[in-house]
Amino acid sequence: MIVDSALYRGGTRVDLDCAPHEFDKLRAGVESPGDFVWLGLYRPSEHELSEVAEAFGLHPLAVEDAVQAHQRPKLEKYADSLFLVLKTLWYVDEDDAVETGEINIFLGRDFVVTVRHGRGSQLRSARSQLEAQPELLTHGPGSVMYAVCDTVVDGYLDVVRELEIDVDEVETSVFSPERTKDSARIYTLKRELAEVRRAVQPLREPMRRLSSGEVPAVPAEARPFFRDVLDHLTQANEVGDSLETLLSSAFEAHLAQISVQQNDDMRKISAGAALVVVPTLIAGIYGMNFEHMPELGWTLGYPFALLLMGAVAGGLWVLFKRSGWL
Amino acid sequence: MIVDSALYRGGTRVDLDCAPHEFDKLRAGVESPGDFVWLGLYRPSEHELSEVAEAFGLHPLAVEDAVQAHQRPKLEKYADSLFLVLKTLWYVDEDDAVETGEINIFLGRDFVVTVRHGRGSQLRSARSQLEAQPELLTHGPGSVMYAVCDTVVDGYLDVVRELEIDVDEVETSVFSPERTKDSARIYTLKRELAEVRRAVQPLREPMRRLSSGEVPAVPAEARPFFRDVLDHLTQANEVGDSLETLLSSAFEAHLAQISVQQNDDMRKISAGAALVVVPTLIAGIYGMNFEHMPELGWTLGYPFALLLMGAVAGGLWVLFKRSGWL
Amino acid sequence: MIVDSALYRGGTRVDLDCAPHEFDKLRAGVESPGDFVWLGLYRPSEHELSEVAEAFGLHPLAVEDAVQAHQRPKLEKYADSLFLVLKTLWYVDEDDAVETGEINIFLGRDFVVTVRHGRGSQLRSARSQLEAQPELLTHGPGSVMYAVCDTVVDGYLDVVRELEIDVDEVETSVFSPERTKDSARIYTLKRELAEVRRAVQPLREPMRRLSSGEVPAVPAEARPFFRDVLDHLTQANEVGDSLETLLSSAFEAHLAQISVQQNDDMRKISAGAALVVVPTLIAGIYGMNFEHMPELGWTLGYPFALLLMGAVAGGLWVLFKRSGWL
Amino acid sequence: MIVDSALYRGGTRVDLDCAPHEFDKLRAGVESPGDFVWLGLYRPSEHELSEVAEAFGLHPLAVEDAVQAHQRPKLEKYADSLFLVLKTLWYVDEDDAVETGEINIFLGRDFVVTVRHGRGSQLRSARSQLEAQPELLTHGPGSVMYAVCDTVVDGYLDVVRELEIDVDEVETSVFSPERTKDSARIYTLKRELAEVRRAVQPLREPMRRLSSGEVPAVPAEARPFFRDVLDHLTQANEVGDSLETLLSSAFEAHLAQISVQQNDDMRKISAGAALVVVPTLIAGIYGMNFEHMPELGWTLGYPFALLLMGAVAGGLWVLFKRSGWL
Amino acid sequence: MIVDSALYRGGTRVDLDCAPHEFDKLRAGVESPGDFVWLGLYRPSEHELSEVAEAFGLHPLAVEDAVQAHQRPKLEKYADSLFLVLKTLWYVDEDDAVETGEINIFLGRDFVVTVRHGRGSQLRSARSQLEAQPELLTHGPGSVMYAVCDTVVDGYLDVVRELEIDVDEVETSVFSPERTKDSARIYTLKRELAEVRRAVQPLREPMRRLSSGEVPAVPAEARPFFRDVLDHLTQANEVGDSLETLLSSAFEAHLAQISVQQNDDMRKISAGAALVVVPTLIAGIYGMNFEHMPELGWTLGYPFALLLMGAVAGGLWVLFKRSGWL
What we know:
Chains A, B, C, D, E: It catalyses: Mg(2+)(in) = Mg(2+)(out). The structure is a homopentamer of 326-residue chains. With 326 residues, chain A is of the alpha+beta class. Helices cover 60% and strands 16% of the residues of chain A. Chain A has a seven-stranded mixed β-sheet. Chains D and E meet through β4, α7, α8, α9 and α10 of D and α8 of E.
């Protein structure tokens, strides 16, 4: 599906009298370096994409990747174009889950084609932000690539911040005195973090290349912007790593808490048992059939025995408390 | 065993009037660069292979490797030929097991010899796919190497996807409320993953070299294809790593579940014990032999005692439930 | 907020008759290389900073970072200035907690702007130390950067030393015979160490670059000073790593202690139980209703039975002690 | 002790009329490049070795190493000779243990001195294999170095294969339903693997250098042979790593099995206890002394009570089985 | 404190008629390259060191380090001198503890100043060994640096060997059938090993530089000696790493042993309990008050009951033993 297609000339969007899929008309509007066509697609069919590929001369292997989706983030350099694959991430509050989409960018001298798979408004917001900064747009199609990367990577930071909150909750839960079942929660968070890492880590090398001047298609004045994106990426990565380490520590602490609790329970149980079995022994003693047991003849023998049982139980209780057993 | 042998000229298979093992006749049909003979062997005897080695001038160390099998994946450059060792992987559904075979490829200027050990249809499917793409075949024998690598690495991705399903099952089992014995399953999956890694990791360096232009025998226009294979290899590797991390986390969670369950069991047992020992104490009390125990003379003393026992047990039960012990 | 602003000429502070925010007047006082203006800001508003940026020609991306704070430590080179981000750390005794602030340094040919976020007296002490060493001040604005880095990194070493004490305490607690709940303490210390690492590690690369001559703005005679800072940074990092390893080992030892203690408790409980159930059995025996039980008729039967119970219990106790069970 | 000493000329052993220690006579027989003397020593005394050192001009530091043994595998280049230290490994079936020896090789232009410490027939078998391949021997003394390395590294692979069998046994034992004490076995195997790694890993760099052409003493045509050795070394290393990972997983599974078993035991114990304490409660009830207890007067009261006990116990048993408790 | 100061000319110590602190007189005795003054200090005061610094032109930052001690091992190159920091280690038998000192070496063209902090006779033994090898001394002051490094690193190997013995003891203790409390011991050993690593690891880079020819002050003929030191350092490091891995494995095995022992204890306890509660049930049965219980009237009823109890207990015991429960 074609979401939007437009010609940008001298930093501003030009209204052309043509349908979105009349790529040749759009491209014919390019007049000087820096002018370019931006075509935005959403889950294009193979057919749609092959038309686009023909119009803009995209490389077949890259087109195949863009149809299939489920690629690793990567930057491929073909003879006269770049192909960038980005994972998009967003946090779904209701499930505490991280979901992923994919954006592919084909970048030529005078065009940029963005292909989105999965949810997300990254492309729309990138487009509207860019259109508000004409001076950036004059950098040519590379500015689109920068704007999209910036929006996507800011999304990573948002997701990572949500996960930070989740980790804080888990931490509180682990060290709360209640019996909590945190291991499933910790496991799920580790899975989410692995998802984030799969999006973040392979993107570092492409961003490094874009910001270092190894890719000639990126003009020198645009490099600090990619360096900024790389910086945010590194930050997302570092926070992710640190959350993972915290989760591992929290899990270990959880294990320790379980053991401590089991020990506490065992002590409670044993104390409780003592409070019953010792009186039972007393009852057993007064249930013996000896002929000569003076207490048995006492008028107050029975209440005395009950009292004895109570006193012994109470004494034990005090003893357990005082000795630190309970 | 010679499975197939053919001459490819100008991108198409040429029917020659000769037996499969008349290598000289086949080779004589090579007319211009890009023409080549493709000889496919399955578990050749030492004798068969030495004949082939003589006909095509293969290096003795490589031939030795191809007979023995059980080599690590590697790419060796000899004076005028390349030797590539690949591990093949497939998933056997009935055992949930990963099995391995081996493919060796000898690549010369005008010939390619493929040797297969172990099950697998990779070579046949690679041959038929290639024969359907004459334009690829015109790249010469390197196209065969690419096609085989592509098929084999796609096989890795298939295996990894099956293992992903297995890991999901284990995960579900670990967090199910039932008492499961997941540690053996997790162990086996880790073994399978190690098997995969042994095939995947050492192949990365050869693929990198083939895709980077370090190996002159690979024409420049074929490099993006090897880059594509390398990309899939990296993906298989990353998914494998991530599955391993998940399995480790799942195992730890399993350990935690065992501990939690033991604690739960201990609480159930102690509660059950309380329901028995407290009435036993009551019975013990009324079994005492004091002369003056008014209850003993009551007409309804006995039912009263039974009721007391029941009431105490019931009360304890409610207490355990309310206090969160059970 | 402008904390201080001054002109340094020939290594000494010059008293100029102008308000702190009259940057142009200050800068006009620069006469020869090595003279420079040092402007110190604390949590500047966006407006304040944009005025400063205009006056000194700071790069907009750097200014944005300085307003937001919460950046990673980094060194950015712009056309004619450097931008350095440092994390400051200090140890809060009352909570045993490590807290963090941030210092940003803009360095030009004839000016240095330092921006502080969060608590800390690093800038003031750096300024007063520098003013006491005129020969250092003649190195130009780079000497300010060195002095700030030195003070900040010395702060890291202080924090690390405090954490070393905390780790020693945890260690003592883990191996004390008492039942301690060290896992929460260990977890918190690991968090603090992660905080330290987040400040220390990303700073190493900038310091390496400043000390190695890759940054032309640092004069050759100043490099040994940055090498000194890098050395302290490496030391802080190594001690931090080693504390983390110790904490992990201490945690494992804590787990082992819990298990050992549980075992000890179980043995105590079982011994205690034996001391009750065996006499109960004896009482049960003498509670049997056989017609011919000689002991029942003995005058001293009852005391004998009680003695028997006591003797058996005492014997068991001795047995448990001797056999090493308790 | 001089084990063997001989002159090799043109690829074949030359019988000279001289005693083994008449090194000068032997060396005088060298006529053209490729001819060389091979002197084999076993645990030479310091005196013996110093004679050899003088005769062949060996470097004192290398000689010191060869006397002491207990060196790390390494390759040292001196002005006109090479010094290689190899660890030899063999598997002692009766103890399931890996033992180590050491071989030192001094390599000059026209001589090779091999020094063996510890058990092993590597040198003898290397010599006899070489003597059977005159074309290899014509490569000069480097062929001896290759042959020794090849034999030693093949020995590593043998050891690693034996350890693979041991690991398989441990694995079977861990997952067997019996109570096994595998932790000592696993620990020992880890020690053996560490032993192997200490021999294998430091040797990789020397082999890489020998196979890459960095060492001029190795003729170009011999490099593929060292590459082959390096390949086997890498294989030994990879299998070793993978065994270690398996052992760690097996150990973790063992821990899980212990926990599961403890839980199973606890359930069995509690069930067994229930089968006793519930009948005890019944006996207690009928041991109460109420005047009005109709059952006591029944003729069949006693058998009824016994039956009741049996029935309750049986019922509990069925309940435990059905509910999955046992 | 000045421990010793002397002039070495042409490889031998020259007796000069001057006090130890008359540095200028000493230095005036230097006649040709290779002659040098060796000044040995022990815990010099700031004042003493500043005098030395002035006399020999030492760099102030290095002097500061030498006063403070507690530096990381490092090699600093100043304009015309080298500054090397070494940690010394020794093993204190009575506490099984590793202690550390520090040696600083200032190396100029014609002098070497060695500063020792902490216990240790490394410098004295290095000096006497060197004075016995005049040919080494002719290499100039670099020979002193080599001799000190050699002695210090040999000390590392000694310490590591002592720790190897300790680890063997721990190992034996872990797998002994007794209940041992090894976790504290293992923890302490890990701390000692961390101490060793802190001395060894940062020294590797300086030694590599000294042995590789990157430091012009080291003459070519001295490099093999530093290579030898580096080799010993690597060995100390490898053994240290391997001990640490062993300790971790031993700790895990210790945890497993605790669990196994707890399980064994639980089984013993349950068996012991069974031996008491089953007879108690029998006693309870014969304590029931049924009118018609034939056994009660038997003359030998009582002994029969006791026998029954004994027989049942004995039977249970045999059952437990046979079934492998105990």
